[in-house]
């Protein structure tokens, strides 16, 4: 198969869909790999490194899209990219379609077969291709929040770890999944006072064991959310419903009860955000203020640390990517966990959460592929 990797064009996105190491694996499986010139610049991988790994270098993205049977990316295709997709072509990338009706329309019109990293599952019910970026984003959320708390950046002027004689900052993490776990790890490491909210009692027990009492765990109710947000210096939104739009857990009204200069970091922004006042921002202009509360809602947080995140992502996506390249759509017929990643196929929505969120009829994935 001809596998193509264009350069990412989203604002301040420095990751790359295929590292040179991943290219070597595809080449070893007998596939032709076409990489756009400069695609790996953000991770320090020049065109020569890709040539040495067995890739052919394309001068333009248009060449990559036109000549490839499968496109491997990081972020969702932008408008000038989705118009280049076509029938009988596979797109393998993050999509986050539920809050993005325009991209969904573009993919449906193209006829492409679109496989979303964020809905591929594993035998434990986890999301193995989302997990590494969730780990990165969770850890970055604390770094970004700590920076935003500085007075010069509009924040309260609180040092999360405090100093002897001064209490540490208070961090509230909403959601105890992968993002929440890694956000809490970073916050605890800085010496902050951390509370994790979740609606799974077994998960709260697990988190209590992991942290050995160094964090507070609390069952998430409206009352608990209000109390923890009102007392927090930094709130991290780490809620995920696979494939679906994130629930709005912190209302605009609640902001009036929060400390002035407190910070909200919405890691769920790719799925529409879990704060009512959230809207996507970029690394170029990451924050804005509502009701005296600083919002950090960058939609591609791991793009800020591309060397770490691109390699972590490629480690996770390579297995299924090779299966798609080796077998085409038959790989999804044979592999149910990969099939769960299918979101769009030949003009039909094949993911239940996306179909429900955007009002489309659902095409059952296995039947759609077989047809």
Keywords:
AlaDH/PNT_N, NAD, 15 helices, 8-stranded mixed beta sheet, Alanine dehydrogenase, 371 residues, 2 domains
Shape: globular
Poorly predicted residue ranges: none
Order of helices and strands: EHEHEHEHEHEHEHEHEHEHEEEHHHEEHH
Question: What's the CATH H-level superfamily name of the largest domain?
Answer: NAD(P)-binding Rossmann-like Domain
CATH topology of the largest domain: Rossmann fold
CATH class of the largest domain: Alpha Beta
How far apart are the termini? Answer: 21 Å
Spatial strand arrangement across the major sheet: 3-2-1-4-5-6-14-15
Q: Give the number of helices.
A: 15
CATH architecture label of the largest domain? 3-Layer(aba) Sandwich
Q: What is the percent of helical residues?
A: 25-40%
Number of domains as seen in the coordinates:
2
Structural class: alpha/beta
Overall pLDDT: 96
Largest sheet: 8 strands, mixed
Taking Cα atoms only, what radius of gyration do you get, to the nearest Å? 21 Å
Amount of beta strand: 15-25%
Give me the count of strands. 15
Concise synopsis of the structure shown:
The protein is an alpha/beta fold and 371 residues long. Helices cover 37% and strands 16% of the residues.
Describe what this molecule looks like in 3D:
- Helix content is 37%, strand content 16%.
- The two termini are 21 Å apart.
- The longest helix is centred in the C-terminal third of the chain and has 22 residues, at 306-327.
- Strand 4, helix 4 (79-82) and strand 5 form a beta-alpha-beta unit.
- The protein is an alpha/beta fold.
- It has two domains: 2-119 and 305-370, 3-Layer(aba) Sandwich (Rossmann fold); 134-299, NAD(P)-binding Rossmann-like Domain (Rossmann fold).
- It has helices at 20-28, 47-53, 61-67, 79-82, 101-110, 131-148, 178-190, 201-211, 222-231, 252-255, 306-327, 330-334, 336-339, 352-358, 365-370, and strands at residues 2-5, 32-36, 56-58, 70-72, 90-93, 113-116, 170-174, 193-198, 216-219, 234-237, 263-266, 287-290, 293-296, 342-345, 348-349.
